[in-house]
């Protein structure tokens, strides 16, 4: 700040205050997530014995998510606004989608969003985190906004532009991706510098990345909420520790956030359906705290 002089003791006081805020924040959301699941937690994400629908989804996705496609998707995204509507309206619009990549839920998307948010709320987590749960999959609206299929909307995400990690689901299916035969794109660092930070890498295009770009300047949600949304499908990273050679110190904050969020997203899928109309007033109140009535999509 121009003209502001800070002596040593003012800096100490500031750093104490930051510590205090972190402790408070920590109490609120880093602590061990407690989420009930009505089935065994190890029975989620069983891809070896998943149905054909899931297997053929990933084969197609892994073959088609190339660097060239990802650049095109970002240019398309920036070139126009697809819709203007509020968050609740977006949730209703999404409701007709059946996610072909998901072995764990047959529920509608609005149910899944409310189940995630409700699990976070029951565990006493802050409002911004409940909102992150409520909206984290809204990027699947891409399907109604001219996506090429489900392969560029849903499923786990990974990095393009460098070697595909074998910690991805069905890693052998990347053989059909032309980038795996490109000398640069198939090397460990590819087009990236070591530890350049995830902000500087190109994630496979889909609902996480799209939703992050939609809300980053249109809501007052904190960085941790944006990270939860942007990386919630990046299982090879947040669950398997892959791609760490590209991450930096800031990403460790994102990682902590995504790991705190993940159990609510995954394990709430087995829970009882929610009463949408009963919950609506509560969540509309929360949405209004972080979003204007309508946003650009
Ligand atoms: O099946 C997918 C899963 O692989 C993703 O990681 C998740 O974010 C999607 O919402 C889901 O439905
Ligand atoms: Fe998702
Ligand atoms: Fe989800």
TrEMBL record:
InterPro entries: Inositol_oxygenase (IPR007828). Belongs to the myo-inositol oxygenase family. One of its GO terms (cellular component) is cytoplasm. The lineage of its organism: Eukaryota, Fungi, Dikarya, Basidiomycota, Agaricomycotina. Keywords: Cytoplasm, Iron, Metal-binding, Oxidoreductase. Pathway: Polyol metabolism; myo-inositol degradation into D-glucuronate; D-glucuronate from myo-inositol: step 1/1. Substrate binds at residues 45, 99-101, 140, 155-156, 232-233. It catalyses: myo-inositol + O2 = D-glucuronate + H2O + H(+). GO terms for biological process: inositol catabolic process. It is an enzyme of class 1 (oxidoreductase). PANTHER family: INOSITOL OXYGENASE (PTHR12588:SF0), MYOINOSITOL OXYGENASE (PTHR12588). This is Inositol oxygenase. Its cofactor is Fe cation. Its EC number is 1.13.99.1. GO terms for molecular function: inositol oxygenase activity; iron ion binding. It comes from the Eukaryota. The keyword Membrane does not apply. SUPFAM superfamilies: HD-domain/PDEase-like.
């Amino acid at each position: 700040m121009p003209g502001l002089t800070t002596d040593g003791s003012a800096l100490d006081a500031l750093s104490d205050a930051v510590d205090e805020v972190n402790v408070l924040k920590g109490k609120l959301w880093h602590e061990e997530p407690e989420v009930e699941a009505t089935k065994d937690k190890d029975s989620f994400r069983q891809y070896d014995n998943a149905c054909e629908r899931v297997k053929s989804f990933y084969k197609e996705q892994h073959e088609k998510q190339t660097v060239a496609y990802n650049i095109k998707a970002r240019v398309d995204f920036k070139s126009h606004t697809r819709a203007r509507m509020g968050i609740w309206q977006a949730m209703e619009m999404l409701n007709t989608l059946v996610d072909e990549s998901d072995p764990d839920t047959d529920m509608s998307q609005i149910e899944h969003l409310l189940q995630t948010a409700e699990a976070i709320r029951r565990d006493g987590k802050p409002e911004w985190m409940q909102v992150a749960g409520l909206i984290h999959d809204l990027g699947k609206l891409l399907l109604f906004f001219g996506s090429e299929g489900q392969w560029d909307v849903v499923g786990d995400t990974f990095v393009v532009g460098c070697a595909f990690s074998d910690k991805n689901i069905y890693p052998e299916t990347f053989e059909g991706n032309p980038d795996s035969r490109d000398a640069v794109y198939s090397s460990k660092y590819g087009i990236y510098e070591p530890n350049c930070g995830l902000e500087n890498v190109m994630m496979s295009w889909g609902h996480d990345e799209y939703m992050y770009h939609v809300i980053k300047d249109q809501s007052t949600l904190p960085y941790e909420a944006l990270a939860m949304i942007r990386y919630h499908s990046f299982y090879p990273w947040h669950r398997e520790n892959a791609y760490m050679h590209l991450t930096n110190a800031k990403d460790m904050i994102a990682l902590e956030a995504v790991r705190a969020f993940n159990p609510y997203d995954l394990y709430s899928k087995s829970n009882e359906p929610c009463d949408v109309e009963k919950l609506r007033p509560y969540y509309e109140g929360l949405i209004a705290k972080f979003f204007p009535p309508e946003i650009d999509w």
